[in-house]
Amino acid sequence: MSLVRESLLIAGKDLRLELRSRTAVLSAFVFAVLVLAIFNFARDATVIGALDLAPGVLWVTFCFAGLLGLNRAFALERENRTLDGLLMAPVSRTSLFAGKALANLAVVALVEGAALPLFALFFGADLRPVIWPLLGVIALATIGFVLLGTLLSAIAVSTRFAELLLPILSLPLLVPPIIAAVQLTSRLLAQRPFVELAPWLRLLVAYDIVVLVITLLTFEYTLDE
Amino acid sequence: MTAIGNRQSSIGRSRVAVVIALGLMVAAAVRAIVFTPVEANQGVAQKIFYIHVPSAWVAFLAFGVVGVCSVLFLVLRDARLDRIAASSAEVGVVFTTGVLLTGPIWARPIWGVWWTWDMRLTSTLFLWFVYFGYLVLRGAVLEPGQRARFSAVLGVLGAALVPFIHLSVYLFRTAHPRPVVLNIEGPQLPGVMLLTLMISLAAFTLFYLALLWQRYAQASIAEAKTEEAARA
């Protein structure tokens, strides 16, 4: 079997499980809406305009909801010790990891896609004029987020306090894409020219590439031998 | 038994090194306080410079060692490299804490605030978070082989992504003074102060090496004892 087919098979298995139980996507989505709603109380509407706070709120929401979704991938396998089965299955480690990352990407993208319209609604932001560039920024930030998150969740799941460890390990390392995504979102919403976006876009792309390279070089060490 | 005995004497020697380094640090502090002129603009508050900057230097050195040892561990699989990385991360976190404590004490009289979201303050804070996480991870994995592999992966990630944290926070904003020593126009510090800083840097570096040695010796003993217990 080819690498692509194998990883799609693993991702498909994960997503089928997800579709039948709907636990991760649904709870992460409700959590995202909850965060968006609670941020409503962090703002004095007479002093701070909704759009001034909106980009930061959007990315804090995406980040926290995304982390919830990421815990799922390996926790699922650990519960019934099915990871041992997967490791013995005739698929390469690379396709196993790629499949997990793909499934994570799908779950996080789904949650983000569902939360985005609600974000526009709650913050009165008209996203239509900038929707394509905004989706591009979300895609770039999400790729780095999911790669790093998948790598770290493979580590965190085998430790004593998995759910707590994933955010502690990943949030500091996620600072660059979070800052870049917030800056890009606020500039897009303010319809600033492309030159003001360029440095942050470069940072985001460079981060994705570096995380991708490190992931490819090190993921094997995170799976048990 | 002899292996453990050897290591115990290694701990003894490392203690001597720690005491010598501490003595040098006291000497450097005395020189900084008594024999180095008071800075014209900042007054006595500037004296903390001779602790703050060497601490930051040691923190970077320590985390650099973590990064190098992590990469080497993944290639060579030598348990000693893992022990060096672990010991260095511990010492590094202690010195980063020192930077984060001395910074506000200095900032208050000079900038008028204890804390500001300046670029270097922010990135130092996140540096602390990254390697604090590294130590938490080490504490959360029980099996030594697994712990070594996991921490090495995190060590590599940290070394590669800390520059990104620095860059993103830099793009965000900065107000910190520009470097006065590693400056493109050469050091912009009067000779006496520069010499005091250099002595302080040397003393702090020695202190780092001594602490690293001691922690390494202790980790080796702990490992040897676990192995002995497993065999018994």
Topology (SSEs and partners):
The complex is a heterodimer of chains A (225) and B (232).
Chain A: H1 3-21, H2 23-39, H3 50-79, H4 82-88, H5 93-122, H6 131-156, H7 162-173, H8 175-189, H9 198-222
Helix pairs in contact in A: 1-5, 2-3, 2-5, 3-5, 3-6, 3-7, 3-8, 5-6, 6-7, 6-8, 6-9, 8-9
Chain B: H1 2-35, H2 49-76, H3 79-111, H4 119-140, H5 144-172, H6 191-231
SSE succession of chain B: HHHHHH
Q: Report how far apart the termini of chain A are.
A: 22 Å
**How helix-rich are the residues of chain B, as a percent range?**
over 70%
Order of helices and strands of chain A: HHHHHHHHH
Class derived from helix and strand content of chain A:
mainly alpha
User: What composes the largest sheet of chain A?
Assistant: none
| Sequence stretches where pLDDT stays below 50 over 5 or more residues of chain B | none
Strand content of chain B: under 5%
Shape of chain A: globular
- Would you tell me the overall average pLDDT of chain A? 89
Tell me the overall shape of chain B.
Answer: globular
Structure description:
The complex is a heterodimer of chains A (225) and B (232). Helix content of chain A is 80%, strand content 0%. The model of chain A has no long low-confidence stretch (mean pLDDT 89). Chain A has 9 helices and no strands. By secondary structure, chain B is mostly helical. In chain B, helix 2 crosses helix 5 (144-172). The A-B interface holds A 148, 151-152, 155-156, 158-161, 165, 168-169, 171-173, 175-176, 179-180, 183, 199-200, 203, 206-207, 210-211, 214, 217-218, 221-222, 224 and B 74, 126, 129-130, 132-133, 136-137, 140-142, 146, 149-150, 152-154, 156-158, 160-161, 164-165, 167-169, 171-172.
